[in-house]
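The following record pairs a protein chain with its ligand, MV4.
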Amino acid sequence: MFSKLLIANRGEIAVRVIRACRELGISSVAVYSELDRDAVHVRLADEAFALGGRTAAESYLNTEAILDVISRSGADAVHPGYGFYSENAEFARAIASRGVAFVGPPPEAIEVMGDKISARLAAQRSGVASVPGTTEVITSTDEVAAFGATHGYPIAIKAAYGGGGRGMKVVGGPDEIEAALESAQREAAAFFGRGECYMERYLTWPRHIEVQIIADHHGNVVWLGERDCSAQRRHQKLVEESPAPLLDDTVRKAMGDAAVAVARGCDYTNAGTVEFLYQDGEFFYLEMNTRLQVEHPVTEMVTGVDLVREQIRVAAGEPLSFTQSEVTSVGHAIEARINAEDPAGGRFLPSPGSLTSLRVPDGFGVRWDGGYEAGDTISQYYDNLIGKLIVWGSDRPTAIARMQRALGELSIGGVATTVAAHTVIMASEDFRAGTHSTRWVEEQLDLSGVSGKADVEPPVGSGGTSDSDDMPRVRRDVVVEVDGKRFSVSAWVPEAASSATAATASARPRRASSAASAGTGTGQVTVPMQGTIVEILVEVGQEVTSGDGVVVLEAMKMENSINADRSGTITEIKVAPGDTVGAGDVVIVIS
Ligand code: MV4
């Protein structure tokens, strides 16, 4: 077994892994950005090392800094969590070459599954049916037309190196082929650096059902039930549950066998998830996620298996601690993702800021996997997941009632959250009947009357959701003696309070551009937070009215419409799709 494990991640998943390490008697090493100096994962780990930087790219995705800390810490294993380096084959190889274990699958399996065409071929070789489609790169519109003539419409055009729905275009009929193919290829090139696309029959009302698998280095591959993740918006899951409602046991078993076959087919080890689309009693392989997923707790709650513990054990070469026939699923588990987002009107607008208060529910059958405490800040630079509320009940109605009870106990001050959306989802007839699909939240759920406002408003004059992550701090080096040994310690202390307050107040108006609907702006349209430009909605010379969307910005995993701050003519477009921008950058000029 390992003696020291480094967690190359932050937030709730870093906390989750640290807890597993403690239970296994493994020493844990945290890493942190400048903004996470006092984060929960840092406080909880046995040791912590600074990476420097603030944005993800400067910190948790700074390969040089991470590799340096891995060697300095003496860690013999690295857990990547999800996101960041979790599906990066090059990183897995770099670690292995240093003699450090990667708590995840072999790099070859990550690569096969990272390319969606090769992933479809892998499933095919394993005898598992994918959605009817092609396994070759589309080279002309004629190929799409021929596919449509044979299989009918709609058709989905997807990026071969894509993921998360980005770049997927739906073709409703022959006259839409040209535009759809062109924009799919353009977006794929902008976002994934490769324009290759392939196509599939587009399923119109599918459920997203995924199977958890785990494999060891002794040839054992088992599946641990499935999760229904259909309640999502813009490819961000909101609610996940296990077992999937209204799923026939024969179909469930067939899906489990198919998932195991896909995993075996690519010599998979460690934890992974095989995604399927399920419609009209049929299931189709979609893709495989070669990492531990956010929603893994629902599987843990019904099977009793500690997935992170098993991940670490199999990475150390130990056999799985159970066999397939020993896996059982008892009762029902539901997870609600609690994000710092305002779901008002179905918009789910990011709402970074300081948590002025946080009271989490407890009691029978309730689990909170969190990464923050009251006083911490949800930064615009990272995922805005505050925590995951997971409940277990003896059956689905009991679990839903328990989730409703727990949501009622959860109280978060300082930021808007998705709690109100979860309350509506749990009460909705479609969700309770289990008839919702992947399009349900966006197209049918009524969130018009919902407000994501913080439960507890900060006292007037406190600065409210002020960006305390921007508070200027200065380094003070002090020498201390611990058990007679001399240490030099760097303390990061706030600058004199008065100057800090003044700096924060003038530094950065929040949501300047998106909130500017009064039409009195300067015409210098800025983005309110760091992110990636997804789409330009206007052209130079075009007339716009104040409040019109001009640019789509992806930030904190959400697409945000950046709007004109005054009426006038577009005179300059300073960005292109794929560009990274920082808070306050001017993207469009109107005069
Ligand atoms: C599909 C589909 C319907 N038909 N493929 C979106 C993300 C990417 N992982 C695959 N996605 C989809 N592929 C065919 N042939 C519908 C989706 C889809 C979806 C899938 C899983 C979870 C949520 C989704 C939301 C919208 C669309």
